[in-house]
Specification:
92 residues, Chromosome partitioning protein ParB
């Protein structure tokens, strides 16, 4: 490079942000194969309205112990947590 800045002459211009202009730009983009990639919903696992599942962050060894005990008893981890919660609340 010779040291000259070829971009020095560029200037920022305000863009037309009207609804009509936005629709026009979207239509032209779609015609050229560009698709709207904005997320449609919140990412991640959806909450279960039936079981009201909670997903706490716990230490791996505790999670493994809960999973092993639930499997040993033949119940779900949620059911085991309910049993533990009842026991905890009765001790208060």
């Amino acid at each position: 490079m010779t040291g000259s800045n070829r971009l020095a002459g560029l200037r920022a211009r305000p863009k037309d942000e009207s609804v009509q202009q936005t629709k026009l730009v979207d239509a032209v983009g779609e015609a050229h194969g560009f698709l709207d990639r904005t997320p449609r919903r919140k990412p991640g696992r959806k909450p279960s309205p039936r079981t009201y599942q909670i997903h706490p962050k716990i230490m791996p060894e505790i999670g493994d112990a809960i999973a092993a005990e639930a499997e040993r008893l033949g119940i779900t981890q949620g059911a085991l947590i309910e049993i533990m919660w009842r026991s905890y609340s009765n001790q208060k």
